[in-house]
Amino acid sequence: MGDSSADLIVTELRAWIDTVGAGARLPSSRELARRHGASPVTVQKAMRTLVGLGLIESRSGVGSFVRGARPPKPLDFRWQTSALRSAAERVPELSTPLRDIAVDVIGLQSGYPARELLPERAVRAALSRAGRSEHAVNRPPAAGLPALQAWFATELAEVTPAGVASVSPRDVCIVPGTQSALGSAFRGLAGHGQPVLMESPTYWGAILAAAQAGLRVVPVVSDAEGPDPDDLRSAFRESGAKVFYAQPNFANPTGAQWTPERKNEILSVVRDVGAFLIEDDWARDFGIDADSVPLAGFDDAGHVVYIRSLTKSVSPAIRVGAVIARGPARERLLADRSAESMYVSGLLQAAALDVVLQPAWRSHLRTLRGTLRDRRDLLVASVQDMLPEAVVTHVPAGGLNLWLQLPDRVDLERLVRDCDAAGVLIASGTEWFPSEPSGKFIRLNYAGPDASRFPEGVGVVRAALVGQRI
Ligand SMILES: Cc1ncc(COP(=O)(O)O)c(C=O)c1O
Question: Which positions fall inside the HTH gntR-type domain (predicted)?
């Protein structure tokens, strides 16, 4: 019996504790093991959790008892207010896509694919193989396991046209998820007080990472085909920025994919002004009607710093991604990575590599494409049938999200709250705007658990909108 049995015992005992008074005696460990068909180790684990939560106490040789609710003595944290003063940047406690979801809630807010979309068998097998390998006890090189660096370099080389110099494995730096690579890229390529250009709307995590690095975000409007090259050129000129963060393929949140012409034009602008483009290719494994074609494949002068994650497609438990940069920028990034986290667990790197080298990985990606297509189409159809107020700004050819515009009169905060109360989590679009939102948007993710409930979820959004009498 694994962790989930211990969690189940904890949940049941917590419900029971709520109904009994302080001092009530818990059933014996043996009795609990019998009732739940669990091992003594699992029961002990559950009991330790309840002790840790302050709900029960164990008296040696006597048993376990429900703790009395002592009137909590408020702690005095005022000294911290003086010590901390104001935060350099106010970052929200937890962005909506990272919220935990309770059982039975319809989660349309998440950023990570549900378990049923992951190559679970391959991940489990890879983890146990990695656990038996030398990677379980060795420190890997700072830039990553050479074989994994080589895999990321080859993946980029596959989409590099003939005549453009491919990146070398040495240019690849393995990172513990690309969120942390964004921080390094912003710190390494720009630095405190400097401007950074970003598409608007764009990934909330990039906005936060830039804020945390003390950068000033300058928004550049982007539509289904990407930003307007002239507007981008003006933004570079006016702001003096030398860094542009962008998602040319299946952008989060809009799903937009820049046209090939637009990609060329933008790369020319970036070259002309002597700037870096941080290309976040987060959805490389989530093409549906099209494949991701990274700009990095067309750059052989080190302008594009390329970021690719495996945490969404392999497993959120295997936080492994890569940042690929050439020239002095690579040294800057590597230095920042070493200062921040030294190296990434070799165990996780080995497991990630094992998964992507299996023949089953390719077939998994093919199946995933079909599954995402079905899910996207079901969500789009549900919205079109049941949510006449919403404009589907763009049916994405890849990625995991649908971006909907709602009438200006909608109270977004209230909408999210009302849906939440009715058991449906959605994300307000506000978090994806680097400055004032240009309208009222919501983002619905079609990779969450139990797609068959999408229509029901959209029905709840509809009821919440109707409740606002807009
Ligand atoms: C566009 C984009 N970039 C980067 C990330 C970070 O992903 P990870 O840190 O899991 O690699 C995310 C996660 O939601 C994302 O949506």
Answer: 3-69
